[in-house]
Write a structure and sequence with these properties.
Helix content is 26%, strand content 28%. With 405 residues, it is of the alpha/beta class. It has a domain of 180 residues: FAD/NAD(P)-binding domain (3-Layer(bba) Sandwich), CATH 3.50.50. The protein binds flavin-adenine dinucleotide. Flavin-adenine dinucleotide binds next to α2, β14, β18 and α8.
Amino acid sequence: MNLQFVKGTPIFTNINENLKQYNYLTENVETEVTIVGGGITGAILGYYFVKKGIKTLILEKGRIGYGSTSSTTSLLQYELDDNAMELIDVIPKENVETIYKLGLKALDEIENIISEYGNKCDFKRRDTLLYTSKKLEIEEMKKEYEFRKNIGLNVDFISENDKKFDFDIKAGVYGINGGAEFDPYKYTHHLLEISSKLGLKIYENTEAIKVNYDDDFVTIETNYGYKVKSKIIIVATGYNTKAFTGRDFGTKTTTYNIATKPLKEIVGWYKNVLIRDNCDPYNYLRTTKDNRIIIGGEDERFEPDIFDESMANKKYNILENRLKSMFKNIKDIEIEYKYCGAFASTKDNIGFLGKDSKNEKLWYGLGYGANGILFATLGGMFLSDLYLGKVHKELELFNPNRFDN
Ligand SMILES: Cc1cc2nc3c(=O)[nH]c(=O)nc-3n(C[C@H](O)[C@H](O)[C@H](O)COP(=O)(O)OP(=O)(O)OC[C@H]3O[C@@H](n4cnc5c(N)ncnc54)[C@H](O)[C@@H]3O)c2cc1C
């Protein structure tokens, strides 16, 4: 388990039984591509690589889906951590447009996978709401709405007079079909089940402890001494990349979540849309198939070696009070799960997908930022093509070397 990166009792590994266990590596093996990390990102990458006929294996040092994947709220939406108007100070406006639209493309892609193989992960397409309860931020919301509308996104403006939600809204941007939710643990296991039929090899409890690069191949040494030889490795280890690179990717925070017991009825929440407020750090909410609410936020600086339990309890209490004050008409709110985990954001809100500038055999699949799962999906699509020699120009936005001096 990724003890220092996830704390508490994450909802998704606790409401689901252990779906499947894979054997650990017991021999030396050769393959074309080694993915290190058996979270949702590794599973997504593995799926695309084997689907395109590339011999691939995954090494997971603990259990599949027990890292950040166990605790992600899994709000899948095209919007980023910051609003467009803030982002255009950092990246060109057309890149913000491209990244919003790529988010929608990734959503459609997940929906297509689910239509092809069945919905085993409680996937549901949702509308989204970004809102403020501060008068001072009404103009900012209007600008975000105008930006999205002008680039052709399907959005409505929500004003103070709109009574779709029980909580106080001064202004909001309503994204029609702009998001989705699912159970990330089930999705990870379903993708692995599909992919193993397509030839993906998966090894649990197998840690990559050392990597040696030769002219034509890479050798990974694993914890029990067995070796994996491949043409490239893809680091999909979430927020823990130290064993593979000295690069410091993103700014790490800890984000906190609580999840309720199943509720009799969720009232005052129009169409169970995905909700995010405009605070800094922001709060985010979703519902689940079994009628729970998950609320998250209250981010703090991440300290890898220290877990401050009293701070975590304060954060969980703040989230519980916020939830109860937002939805006063839901009377049976009781919290069942409390957990927190590392999260990383980047200057331009975009993750890292692609090759290391100094090492052609070292690739990254790091879905950093608020929509890591959608970025991982784009990573699967684009990196598998890149391996086969097809370059997508959009991949440049995710260039792991873009902040190098
Ligand atoms: C509370 C919380 C809420 C979040 N909400 C959202 C959200 O709403 N939407 C969203 O898109 N993202 C969200 N995130 C971020 C989200 O968790 C990530 O996008 C996603 O889960 C990351 O998955 P991953 O597979 O990259 O990482 P992980 O699930 O952490 O998987 C990495 C795996 O690599 C393994 N590993 C590490 N080192 C090695 C090694 N040397 N050898 C072998 N295996 C190794 C680990 O054991 C781990 O299982 C949230 C995160 C948290 C903590």
